[in-house]
Amino acid sequence: MEIDRDADFRAFWTERRLASLTTVRPDGTPHVSAVGVTVDFETGLARVITFASAVKARLVRAAGDGGIPAAVCQVEGRTWSTLEGRAILRDDPESVRDAENRYAARYRVPKPNPQRVVLEIAVNRILGNA
């Protein structure tokens, strides 16, 4: 799904600000963590880099190829936006390198981490007033 929104929306998701990521545990309860997130507007993918051992990564990996429901949300004053979809885990070097480069463009160059993985969310719903 291409994310076709106005310039203000794109700016909101490209300027430096942190977000929360919500994933779902097997018992149905939410797991929420603070993250940096990047959005590829052309492909409709939101990406979060993390450690393979992080709870969020373990939850997504355990779900398998079908992924799990996930949402990333940003708030700045009265402006907010949530991107929802299914998250899958990517650990191949090309996906990790691409996500690191996107993260570096929005935030800063991440420290080297041989255990890095990418949570990739295929956005299928957009909420908010951004």
From TrEMBL:
<dbReference type="InterPro" id="IPR012349">
    <property type="entry name" value="Split_barrel_FMN-bd"/>
</dbReference>
<dbReference type="Pfam" id="PF01243">
    <property type="entry name" value="PNPOx_N"/>
</dbReference>
<dbReference type="InterPro" id="IPR011576">
    <property type="entry name" value="Pyridox_Oxase_N"/>
</dbReference>
<keyword id="KW-0560">Oxidoreductase</keyword>
<dbReference type="InterPro" id="IPR052019">
    <property type="entry name" value="F420H2_bilvrd_red/Heme_oxyg"/>
</dbReference>
<protein>
    <submittedName>
        <fullName>Pyridoxamine 5'-phosphate oxidase family protein</fullName>
    </submittedName>
</protein>
<feature type="domain" description="Pyridoxamine 5'-phosphate oxidase N-terminal">
    <location>
        <begin position="8"/>
        <end position="126"/>
    </location>
</feature>
